[in-house]
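chain below, 220 aa
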Amino acid sequence: MATLKEREGKRKKSSTSSVIEFFVIVGVAIGLAFGIQKFLVKPFRIPSPSMVPTLKVGQRVLVNRLGPHFGDPGRGDIVVFKPPQGADPSLNRCGNTNEPGDGHPCDTPTSQQSDSNFIKRVVAVPGDWIKVINNRVFLAKSANGPFKQQDEPFINKDDHTCQELCNLRKPIHIQPGHFFMMGDNRGQSDDSRAWGPVPKKWIIGRAFFTYWPPDRIGTL
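prediction:
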């Protein structure tokens, strides 16, 4: 039979083993959570009203980070991305000398990305020609058209605000590897019309599910 001293030694070893096991499990859980956010799915909070009525301020969504590695986003996708530095309030400019005030959207982003995260909808993809009339998107496959108004049931039709970005009738061409982003709340959205298309490498992922508040839970 084991002596009292031997039994105490076994209990100490068992306790030590349990403590080590606990910290290993916690460490693995933290590592998995970090890995999931970094490589698979990341939560994101809506910071502004630019996507109303689809997404409201404070609403929370899940973003699929794998998508951009395996394919391009499509028209209509809601994506989280790093905008060009031209979107920052300190710069607030297009990447070339042809500003939207000249009658067309910005066609070239600044060369560096911002540190901010934006969420918008993809409205034009590489190869598209785009112009904006009364806050509605018109697309064509060539500069000479024909331009077709897009079916956009998701935009905020109750907002009739018209700023300098609402009528940009001179078309621009979306270059390879770039995507043109606009908010659903067109009258209150700072988007690609002002600071240009977004390179694919700056896209973090596609928003696919909203989980807060409870009355808005569902897929996007």
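Residues 4-40 form the longest helix (37 residues). Residues 1-42 form one domain.
thats it, cya
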